[in-house]
Amino acid sequence: MPDVQMPRLSDSMETGKIIRWLKKEGDEVKKGEPLVEIETDKVNSELESPYEGRLTEIVAAEGTTVAVGEVIARIDEVGAEQSRV
Predict the structure, then answer these.
(1) Residue 16 to residues 20, 60, 74, Cα–Cα distance (Å)
(2) Is the C-alpha dihedral spanning 52, 56, 61, 64 positive or negative?
(3) pLDDT averaged over the chain?
(4) Nearest to 4 by CA among 79, 16, 12
(5) Tens of pLDDT along 40-70?
(6) Are strands 44-48 and 28-29 parallel, antiparallel or unpaired?
(7) What does the alpha-carbon distance between residue 69 and residue 40 come to, in Å, rounded to a whole number?
(8) Which is nearest to 4 in space by CA: 68, 55, 71, 63?
(9) What is the number of other CB atoms lying within 10 angstroms of the CB of residue 57?
(10) Residue 57 to residue 76: CA distance in whole angstroms
(11) Given CA atoms 53, 55, 57, 63 in this order, what sign does their dihedral have?
């Protein structure tokens, strides 16, 4: 089950704040689909899903400040079981 991590959106970014989740736990997500809004010291931006599947866990709640590289969510990838066979 792949982890979604807080990305580094600028060279100076050390943390980002989760503003709003655009998907709920259990929702299907497509790769490239907006997943969450993040606020940095310079800009607010949407993070697109890096995977296709089901959002199984939101680790970082709205309003939480998270360090770059920390896990913010987990997605159960579509087809992950078939690709391991």
Answers:
(1) 12, 11, 17
(2) negative
(3) 91
(4) 16
(5) 987 899 999 999 999 999 999 999 999 999 9
(6) unpaired
(7) 14
(8) 71
(9) 15
(10) 9
(11) positive
